[in-house]
Predict the 3D structure of the following.
Amino acid sequence: MHHLKDFEMDMITIEYYKIGAKFCRHQYKNDGACIFLHESINFDSISTHHICKEKGLEICAVKLNLPKIKTVIITIYRSPTGNYNYFLRKLDSFINSLYTKKMKFIICGDININYLYCHNSRQQLDMLLATYN
């Protein structure tokens, strides 16, 4: 989560790093997702605007252009008050659209699932992620 607006994200400078992808809220305050990458890394931003929904699935992604490993980095924020079924459905659809057997995924962020307890939401997410190894 970064809690910034688009124009604020564009003003951030971190030496040797650049913004690879971002999602900023417009309707609600705070939260959002972003990925910073070292300037030496070659990457392509992946469009996520069609599935992003404030509080439902705030997501951004990049595909690293590495010589030997196909890798997608996905950063997610899911509000605890968002629609969980929307989150699962759209995340599944998004990963499926990128998936190949050789593709590696790095998924990070704040999904707001309590992994200290076994419950239906945790099991559903685990099953979705297991589908894609």
Notes: DSSP finds three helices and six strands in the chain.
